[in-house]
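Ticket #4471: structure export looks truncated?
Reporter: QA, pipeline team
Priority: medium

Steps to reproduce: submit the single chain below to the structure queue and open the exported record.
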Amino acid sequence: MEPEELFETPADAANDPRILVFGRLLGAANRLEFLLGTALEAEVGIEHGLYELLLIVARAGDGGIAVRDIAQLRVLTSGGATRLVQRAIARGLVSRRNSPTDGRVQLVELTLPGSEIVRRASIIHARGIEKHLLDVLTDDQRALFAEVIRAISKNAAAALPVMP
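Actual output as written to the record:
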């Protein structure tokens, strides 16, 4: 059935279960980002977006990660990823070097202070995740939620175009 046939009124559209579930997902993510981000800034002095960059770099390991891969993972333009990396460099949290195999590629790695911030911030972040997300779910709901979020995230990542 075409959406135009389903929505006779704006209220019908606004109350469509598909639209409601996505709105709830987005609203929950926004609220959690605010709560968790506020805690990171207050207790560690780092904004949530910068913390997420550090996590991406930490997951990449010792070889570093290309700025273009950061852009894809964070759903940023290459310019946006470059600015984020530059902010982290200015704070001494990451370093950037040319790839040994492709001089056009810049690899980003954690510095020792960046590694320390990841460890400290992750304690605060994990505590907030437990309090605001996991503690409201039963054990079965937690396992199901993790599985469902992984599937949704994987599907959305596969549908993304290469970020410019």
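Status: closed, not a bug. The export was complete when the record was re-opened. Leaving a note from the reviewer for reference: The mean pLDDT is 93.
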